[in-house]
Amino acid sequence: KGWHTFNKTTIGSAWQVKDDALMLDASQKENWQTKGGGDIVSDEAYDNFHLKLEWKVATNGNSGIILFIKEDPKYKYAWETGPEMQVLDNAGHPDAKIIKHRAGDLYDLISCSKETVKPAGEWNQVEIISKDGLIEFYLNGEKVVSTTFWNDDWKKLIAGSKFKSMPDFGKFPKGHIGLQDHGDNVWFRNIKIRKL
Question: Is 3-195 a CATH 3.40.50.2000 domain?
């Protein structure tokens, strides 16, 4: 309740509620994602908000929390418009060797100021605050990213990233919040979104 698959009205069967957590059962693969999975997004769109949640991933797991998503049939994936806080098993996933691709990073744009992630299978606490363009990421109680979206510096960051070929990436100051299906088991719980 409160979520649907990106660009659809319902949610896929691979997303399940188990032990008070929203879990992606990625046992059945479909390319790099999950059969019956796909990214899920909040029913509501947000601009100024305070998001709190906890996540854990399987060994070698990869997922993400995607922000300011625009739904439109012309976009195949949520990350074509939405910047992402990376969710990752830093110890096991090869992406962790890339600065800006580790847990807590603003994916491919800004790396964490410090590494505060817990190992695979352990719960991590996240807070994301968006207030008038200032975006702050907290991972396990520590502020790890603080930056301003939608100004000239933001445009330069995107121009130097893998998203430079996506004309609408990071462009929308109001959008849906998404949880990513990257083909790995991931759990989310205690998800609370408050408008500011």
Answer: no
